[in-house]
Specification:
The chain has about 180 residues and is an all-alpha fold. The chain has a domain of about 100 residues. About 55% of the residues lie in helices and about 0% in strands. α2 packs parallel to α4 and α3 packs antiparallel against α4. Keywords: Membrane, Transmembrane, Transmembrane helix.
Length: about 180
């Protein structure tokens, strides 16, 4: 029994003599930092227990060829971009068919008004989406607006509005670009 007590004492002395881990102070963000306290307000209080030691790891170095990303930037997958591209393409095709149907069934003024209203509506929609930070969708609708503007130019020439049918075809289309 005496040997067990002696071994226990040796173990306790070795544990007391071993170096204790020193906690590394971690700076708090400015919003979470405690407010400064006046020296004459301090009263003798019991010291709080030491916080548990935290291991602070240095930041990892970026991999070769990796680019730093903006912390708040949304990440898009290629599937999202593909779906957006397919959607804008299908809406563009639908716009062409709609204009064709309007061309068959409506008069000159109605055709021009319908096409112009759809173009302006798509342009306003792109602006609203941009302000709502839906940039990729706004760019897709912007591409649709380009298709609609070209269809507007074609309709203006075909309806002979403002005497555009008499203009040289190559010069007319070159002026749009």
């Amino acid at each position: 029994m005496a040997e067990a007590l002696a071994a226990e004492r040796v173990a306790l002395r070795a544990a007391a003599a071993a170096p204790k881990p020193v906690p590394i102070p971690v700076p708090l963000p400015p919003a979470a930092a405690p407010a400064p306290v006046s020296a004459n307000v301090l009263a003798p209080v019991l010291a709080p227990a030491a916080p548990a030691a935290r291991t602070v790891r240095p930041p990892r170095a970026p991999l070769k060829g990796a680019t730093a990303s903006v912390p708040g930037a949304p990440r898009r997958s290629s599937v999202q971009i593909l779906l957006l591209l397919v959607g804008v393409t299908l809406v563009s095709v639908a716009a062409i068919f709609f204009i064709t149907v309007a061309w068959i069934y409506a008069g000159h003024e109605a055709r021009s008004a319908i096409i112009a209203l759809f173009t302006v509506a798509a342009l306003v929609t792109a602006g609203v989406l941009r302000r709502k930070r839906l940039v990729a969708t706004a760019e897709g609708i912007g591409a649709l607006v380009v298709v609609l503007v070209l269809l507007d130019a074609w309709a203006l020439r075909q309806n002979d509005l403002f005497g555009l049918a008499a203009a040289d075809g190559a010069a007319y289309w070159a002026s749009l670009w």
